[in-house]
Design brief:
The protein has 15 helices and 3 strands. It has 275 residues and is mainly α. A 3-stranded antiparallel beta sheet has the order 1-3-2. Strand 2 and strand 3 form a beta hairpin. The longest helix has 16 residues. Bound molecules: iron/sulfur cluster. Iron/sulfur cluster binds next to helix 9 and helix 12.
Length: 275
């Protein structure tokens, strides 16, 4: 299984017990999706959901909102902040009261206040197009897992393959939940994450394992010194038999010990420990 398949498979199995349920997650109505996405910008999802319920009840379609006054919209928006979002949504509803979503598909970014992310959210959630809606959470997950410095480019190049054989709306929801619960911006929960050895960030953060001691320079040095403590004028060739290592490696270690002032090598043959 390649890395992209592992990513997809493990996230989907994680989602079985971890999906957050909201009514708008089961809709394919682009108006409801647009409404939710605009309300949810820079707003915590639980709070956005409360406003969404209020708005969708009053304005079940763009036509209803287009008939409302700006003052009425801003009154309902009160407490969410970024009032310009409400004004642009109102303007979008006027356009949509005369032009259906289908008639402007896929160019939803001609609507006021609709950028690349919201456009892709509508394309995915309402039309099940093979696109990944890239918000900061999603970019962070891709950047960490695949170890890419340009997650935007990576997603554009690979989204069709990643979304092959699955519903893009489902996968986009899983990414949102995973970014908000596990792979958070600060202190990601790597210890309980479904990924460990597959995630580039996790691999890079892992401390380097201690080099194996057996056969290491450290072990050979220890053996040489131990032998020299109880024997004087040791013949290098006999040491070779005792240590059982490559000749060049042994020579290298002896030179190092000599340069550190630990031993003396006489006539390139005999060695003893320095007093
Ligand atoms: S191992 Fe950590 S950094 Fe990697 S995907 Fe999981 S939570 Fe994110």
């Amino acid at each position: 299984m390649n890395k992209q398949e592992i990513f997809k498979k493990k996230l989907l199995s994680w989602s079985i017990k971890n999906t957050r349920e909201y009514s708008w997650r089961n809709t394919e109505d682009p108006w409801k999706i647009l409404l939710l996405e605009v309300i949810a910008q820079q707003t915590q999802l639980e709070r956005a959901n409360k406003y969404y319920q209020k708005f969708i009840k009053k304005f079940p379609n763009p036509n209803e909102m287009s008939k409302a006054t700006k003052k009425e919209i801003l009154g309902m928006w009160s407490g969410l902040g970024y009032n310009s979002r409400a004004v642009r949504l109102h303007e979008a509803s006027k356009i949509l009261s005369k032009n259906s979503f289908d008639s402007i598909y896929p160019e939803f970014d001609i609507l006021p206040g609709v950028g690349e992310y919201t456009k892709n959210a509508i394309l995915s959630f309402a039309y099940n197009d093979k696109v990944i809606a890239q918000d900061t959470n999603v970019l962070r997950i891709f950047s960490r897992f695949f170890g890419t410095k340009d997650p935007q480019k990576f997603i554009l190049e690979n989204q069709k393959n990643i979304l092959k054989n699955i519903k893009s709306r489902k996968f986009n929801q899983v990414l949102m939940d995973f970014g908000s619960k596990i792979c958070t911006s600060k202190n990601p929960s790597c210890s309980v994450c479904v990924f460990d050895n597959e995630c580039e960030k996790f691999i890079q953060a892992r401390p380097n394992p201690q080099p194996a001691f057996k056969g290491s320079d450290r072990e050979i040095r220890g053996k040489i010194i131990k032998h020299l403590i109880v024997n004087n004028n040791v013949d290098i060739s006999s040491l070779n038999i005792l240590i059982k290592t490559e000749e060049n490696k042994l020579k290298h270690i002896l030179k190092k010990l000599e340069s550190e002032g630990m031993i003396t090598i006489k006539n390139k043959k005999l060695i003893e420990i320095n007093s």
